[in-house]
Write a structure and sequence with these properties.
The structure holds 2 protein chains of 2 kinds.
Chain A: H1 4-11, H2 19-62, H3 75-106, H4 114-136, H5 153-173, H6 181-206, H7 213-246, H8 253-270, H9 282-294, H10 296-310, H11 321-343, H12 346-352, H13 356-386, H14 393-425, H15 440-474, H16 491-496
Helix pairs in contact in A: 2-3, 2-4, 2-13, 2-15, 3-4, 3-7, 3-13, 4-5, 5-6, 6-7, 7-8, 7-11, 7-13, 8-9, 8-10, 10-11, 11-13, 11-14, 13-14, 14-15
Chain B: H1 4-30, E1 36-38, E2 43-45, H2 51-63, H3 116-119, H4 123-131, H5 133-136, E3 149-153, E4 175-179, H6 181-192
Antiparallel strand pairs in B: 1-2, 3-4
Classes of the chains: A mainly alpha, B mainly alpha.
């Protein structure tokens, strides 16, 4: 097997053949240490907060009187606190950290002005904290994905402006002439997000548009946050780590470019499919539906590219935690995006719109794809900036299996429950609620229970992750370079040592 | 060759394209939609929310009712909104033009509420339902909102506003459960929700009102 030495080398930075490059990389990694740790630390704390609110909300949906008389824990607020904590707290912080680290590595330059990033990080996290407290105390705007009250959002703007300035500087000072596809995605994401966010803030909160134009702005924003911010950053990470860990180049440069431009072109029209059947002009809906179908192109192209890169290396999944999480994420990206295109079909939409199916779909995108990719990236990045290894392979294993099984149960359960709910809701002979006969509401309860079960599993996984990180931070650095923590050592590495 | 500027232009134009198409075009074409003045009634439709109902809408927003209730009726034949009695006609853009915040919603864990004021006008029903949905709708998974009510000791005459709780929910003897101003406002908002006016653009999508009693077996 020709790839054997490569594979071993890429798992283990200390055995990299190219020592000069290695030294340069560790200098770059070291320069990212403080800001990356700050953002990743905040991300993981938010993940725990978001998970707690997720569990409470999930229980409340099948057992509504659980904490029923505490106002700040009413479903409408805990569910919203959950969303904002995992999106703006966990996901955005993690995305920032991974994006900086990748930017620095890919432009082959040490990270400058990290002070700027730290100030931005402080603003961002204070903003999110104030926003979530605002939601819990009753100041939510009730605009989906933009619930944070207007006294919190300016802090987020300041944070973002600083990060944008920093990104421009770094991009300019990059040494590497070639622009790798991951950088395309990062650059685009960093540019798209503030545009989306500021238009949404202006047209929905500062100077609200009239009538259902608001709904168009809302879904143009909310869907594009997924497609033009989280997706590009997730894909940038996949495009970087997949070849990096496997020690071989990505399958096709051409396909990665095609994937990028088709995503850029089609995704941003797709969001209005959230309004199918709603009081907005029919032509926008048709355009949105068409764009959603066209999304199959970037998704299939990217899927083929990732899959073909993996071909021949599947055994590496046995060893590398990073790879396992990243591959789970990449596969989920393909599946969830294709389902997303299907959901824009009018006939399908008639059934699944307004049901738990959409909730399952959102979690497949944000969790099974994005969050899993972030976990994988963190497993790679942290040892390199801390110069320490993960203390426990067992905890990594617990993390992987609980969240992998958890999110699968979640998505499968709520998808089936959602389709059933939709079919029954569209059949007026079935009562909406009844205790004597089968009804739409009571028939969803078993699926809501399965969601709580999966939530418990994922909570265990997140705790294992957090414990492993804290342990890693606290333990002293080994005097000698150590072997990387893998699920099991590949046979060839045993030989190499 | 430095291709960064080229990539950047592409990135800019792709989003500019949808921004122009979805946001700008619609803002220009129907962002100025006006109410319709009905000469016979000498009123303009849609009507503005009465003051108390407008306050109630804020309560609806802060408690997150939108995460379980939509406010948009789909056309007859697309879903069963009409047959379930959620509205006699499809919702149209003009219905929403007076609303500072449009709360279409994307979830129907509970029924659509766009016309709840037409189908359930009773203040007492809404109060009991909000206090604990199990009272009126056994088996519901709707959140209870007991914190919108206060339990008082009865001094002198019982309050006329107090809600009449059935057993086993009844307050301790000598006490009564009174809705707070927020509860009153919220119920006023719910009662105000009805799109009954027939705009020119809705006339061709009218249907027979759904037969009563199908919606929920409790009715």
């Amino acid at each position: 097997m020709a790839s054997v030495p490569n594979l071993a080398a890429s798992f283990d930075p200390a055995t990299s053949p190219d020592l000069v490059k290695r030294a340069e990389l560790s200098e770059i990694d070291a320069s990212t240490k403080v800001p990356a740790l700050f953002f990743l630390g905040s991300a993981v704390l938010w993940l725990l907060v978001g998970t707690a609110f997720a569990l409470i909300s999930s229980f409340k949906l099948h057992t509504p009187n659980y904490f029923g008389d505490i106002e700040w824990l009413t479903f409408g607020r805990t569910r919203t606190a959950h969303l904002n904590a995992v999106i703006y707290g966990w996901s955005v912080n993690a995305a920032f950290a991974v994006a900086f680290w990748l930017m620095a590595r890919l432009s082959r330059s040490v990270l400058r002005h990290s002070g700027l990033l730290m100030i931005a990080g402080a603003f961002w996290n204070i903003g999110v904290t104030i926003g979530i407290i605002g939601i819990l105390t009753g100041d939510s705007t009730s605009i989906e994905w933009l619930e944070m009250p207007p006294y919190a959002t300016p802090l987020l703007f300041v944070a973002y402006a600083l990060i944008g300035a920093w990104a421009l500087i770094t991009f300019r000072f990059g040494k590497s002439g070639h622009i790798y596809v991951s950088q395309w995605y990062l650059l685009a994401a960093l540019f798209w997000f503030p545009w989306l966010y500021s238009i949404a803030q202006i047209m929905l909160i500062l100077e609200p548009a009239r009538g259902t134009v608001q709904a168009l702005v809302n879904w143009w924003f909310a869907h594009n946050v997924l497609g033009l911010w989280f997706t590009p950053i997730g894909l940038a990470a996949v495009y970087y780590f997949l070849p990096k860990v496997l020690g071989k180049p990505i399958h096709s440069y051409y396909l990665s470019i095609l994937g990028f431009w088709s995503l850029a072109l089609f995704y941003n029209w797709a969001g209005v499919h959230h309004l199918i059947g709603g009081p907005v002009p029919a032509w926008v809906l048709s355009a949105g539906i068409a764009a959603s179908f066209m999304m199959a192109i970037p998704v299939i192209v990217t899927g083929i590219n990732h899959h073909m890169t993996m071909v021949g290396s599947f055994s590496a999944l046995k060893y590398s935690p990073t790879l396992r999480f990243i591959v789970f994420g990449a596969v989920s990206y393909t599946i969830t995006s294709l389902i997303g295109s299907l959901m824009a079909d009018r006939q399908v939409n008639e059934v699944v719109h307004f049901t738990h199916f959409t909730v399952a779909h959102a979690h497949q995108g944000m969790y099974a794809f994005f969050t899993m990719v972030m976990f994988g990236s963190i497993y790679y990045i942290l040892p390199r900036i801390l110069l320490k290894e993960w203390p426990s392979a067992m905890l990594i294993s617990v993390h992987f299996w609980t969240v992998a099984v958890g999110i699968t149960v979640y998505v499968v359960g709520l998808s089936i429950g959602g389709i059933k709910q939709g079919l029954e809701m569209n059949n007026a002979d079935i009562p909406f609620l009844s205790t004597t006969a089968a009804s739409v509401v009571t028939n969803t309860i078993p699926y809501l229970l399965s969601r709580s079960l999966s939530g418990v599993l994922m909570t265990i996984g997140h705790m294992a992750f957090a414990v492993n990180i804290s342990w890693m931070l606290l333990r002293p650095r080994a005097p000698q370079a150590t072997t990387p923590t893998l699920f099991q050592n590949p046979p060839e590495m045993e030989v190499a040592r | 060759m430095n291709r960064a500027p080229l990539i950047f232009l592409g990135i800019f134009f792709t989003l500019a394209f949808s921004w122009t198409g979805i946001i700008l075009t619609n803002q220009l074409t129907y962002g100025k939609l006006e109410p319709i003045v009905d000469q016979t009634e000498n009123k303009s439709y849609p009507e503005a929310l009465p003051g108390l109902a407008a306050q109630g809408k804020l309560v609806y927003q802060d408690l997150g009712c939108i995460y379980c209730h939509s406010q948009q009726v789909r056309r007859p034949g697309f879903g069963a909104d009409d047959k379930r009695g959620w509205g006699d006609r499809q919702s149209v853009a003009r219905d929403y033009i007076r609303e500072g915040r449009v709360l279409l919603g994307t979830m129907r864990t509970g029924p659509d509420l766009r016309n709840i004021g037409a189908r359930q006008a009773s203040r007492d029903w809404h109060m009991l339902h909000l206090y604990d949905p199990q009272i009126t709708s056994k088996g519901s998974i709707m959140a209870p909102f007991p914190f919108l009510f206060e339990t008082h000791k009865i001094v002198g005459q019982p309050s006329p506003k107090a809600i009449k709780l059935p057993a086993p929910y009844t307050a301790v003897p000598g006490y009564e459960v009174v809705p707070t101003p927020r509860a009153e406002a919220l119920v006023a908002y719910l009662q105000s929700l009805k799109d009954s006016y027939a705009y020119p653009e809705t006339r061709n999508v009218f249907v027979e009102p759904a037969s009563a009693g199908k919606m929920e077996d409790k009715q």
